[in-house]
Amino acid sequence: MKKIIVKALHAGIKKLPKINKAYDLSFFSETIERTRDSSHGDFTSNIALRLAKSLKKNPRELANEIFDCIPKNNSIKKIEVAGPGFMNFYLYDSAYHTEIERILSNKDLIEKNKDFKKHKLLLEFVSANPTGPLHIGHGRHAAFGASLRNILEAVGYDVKSEYYVNDSGRQMDILCISVIIHLLQRENQRVSMPLAGYQGQYIKTISLAIDHKFNEDEIKIKELIPKIDDRDNQDQYIDCLIENTKRLISAKKFNQIKKQSLDLIKKDIQDDLSEFGVLFDSWFSEESLDRNGEIDKALKSLMKKNYLYEQDGATWFKATDLGDEKDRVVIRKNQNKTYFTSDIVYHHNKKERGFDTLIDILGSDHHGYIARVKAGLEAMGHNSDDLDVQLVQFVSLYENGVKQAMSTRSGEFITLRQLREEVGNDAARFFYIMRSNEQHLDFDLALAKSKTSENPVYYIQYAHARIASVINQLNEKSLKYDQKNGISNLKLLTSEKERQLMVSISRFSEILFLSAKNKAPHSLAQYLRDLANDFHSYYNESIILIDDHALRDARVSLAISTKKVISMGLSLLGVSSPSSM
To answer: pLDDT tens for residues 30-43?
Structure first.
């Protein structure tokens, strides 16, 4: 619908004298938006206000000049100049009829932007450390990332999704020692779980799945337990415990148990996400960067470019030279490489694989991470603007008005799987993305499970089911529906609610492109809620299956086009479209 106004403005501007600049269509599109009040027309444009200064004209006078130059258009009923120079466009109903016809005839519903296909995007999300099951916070990342991927793909982008598996470093060692403690306890060894270890029941489950027994010569408890008080220095205690364990059972056997633990947790994460409708094109191993020599190669490159220096026994990256607030350690005093080192190399690897834009979906507590990774990209010879980081705020789960706690280390957390079993995938997917990712989310279990109009996902699905019921009734009553007849008689749809529903349907394409541009799936969710409301309002006022064949086919056509839009919109958000409820 917007294209009608864009083309009209473009044609009019070209006829204006003293226009030396050739404006592309995207410029005109940016000046146009839907009116909030239908009495002011269907669309409004501030193009006269945008151009007035450069053309040294009064905005209102310029708006009238543009108006005089716009050629006659079969879709535009009238144009009015309002206020300081806004141009309000009123469309004939036939413009909306054309949109309904397009939706009924087009399987894809969306006309993809062919230029987008040339742009390769890599979307990385969730990437939770494989040290335990996914919790409800990870679920929001999963729903947001998967929905965004679907939307970007729908408008034409070449998108791949990736999960970055943090399978190296200290946290994996802590996971392994936590499992080993349970293995020892199964053998009645008197050893307690360190305070800094992973405490959850899932650790015991992993230990039960690992077929391993230690003989008395392998682990002598007196040599295993550090001569440090766990309560006084938890980190030092567990690091010493890990070191002792590797010495007693060998680093090789320690790593074997670590890999088995990792594989079990990774499989659980993959199954959980798959059941949630979240699939990845690739799972990238952090450990592979070191194993393949990419980290050492990158460090040599950074050293050659004079981006590294030695200080206090550690190796530092000159992040401040590239916009970060402080320099960052890449190799610690103990010669262990930091997580940031892997991050530099991983993002370099992404660019080397040919991706134009890298979209990282991270927790809001990773705000400080952005500048340092952008600095790393610049140092490795890439454009830091190619990195787009979307931050996702935290989730609070409320049950019977009580806020639920979650902590991976303590084991007191609610898993994504538990939430899905409680409210269902549809409610979980929709509730996670119905607010902007930049806003904190309070997840209300009671509302998510309710079957009322207050529950947005139920309300939208009910609209779809109602339309499916109308179609079933059509068949049960042996009433014939002729799509061509329905389209040719859309002019019979003259009520205020019928026009409002047609206007809402016509917004689908632009909402989808806007959601892609702003990386905002919640815009689509809100649109579907509004569309469902318009349909319910229309349905409650009108009888669709009337005796008048022409008007009946027109109303059925309107209902079916609504159903198609709801179905595709929900599909992009990972939500089903039931035919009965």
So the answer is: 899 999 888 899 99
